[in-house]
Amino acid sequence: MNEIKDKVINIECSGNHYRLCRMNDSQYYELWKNSIPIADDYGFYLDFYLYLSHEGKSLNLAQIYVTLKELCGESGQFFDDWKGSFSFPFFLEVSKAGHKFDYLLDIYDHRGSLYFGICKQLQPYDSYDFRLIHQPFSEEFSRQDINKFISYLYGYIQGYFEARQDNYKQFFFKRVDSNGILFGYKDGNFFEEHYDSPENYEPAVKLLENYRFG
User: Domain boundaries in the chain?
Assistant: First the structure.
């Protein structure tokens, strides 16, 4: 059973239970200092997003941002504002084979792509080097588990957006300056635009700013 309550999301996926608790930046940072990063699977991301695009199931950044905001509140600020525009940090409890394991999850955009950053919480007896990026711990949250979880969570976000999209009416826009990307909601449309030069990008930013304040 999957449910949302008080910014806590419970998900059942492939026999595992995941409890996601939204945190603010201060809470996330305190736990992040005592955690180790788990390596991203860039091959999985590439294949997964190509599949979504081919099937016509992709969400753009505006749709993802609005859905996450509706689900669990405004974005945090724990991100590079040159290369990204939002960050939604969570405490992630993984229940597998009768055991519980503590992780962190950060859903964020980077240069126009969506990432699900995962860190493992360290216990007092752990001696892992926090300066290194680690491969998944198969007995806790394996690579296969992670990829299935990301796929399921993306579908969860997609389903929530489809159910609620007609209720959204508020203009907004966000920018990713490193890659000349603008996204938001305007005139009944969730848009994401990519510009190939500053000469085209900056006038588009000004138009949106004028629309916001006009």
Answer: 3-169
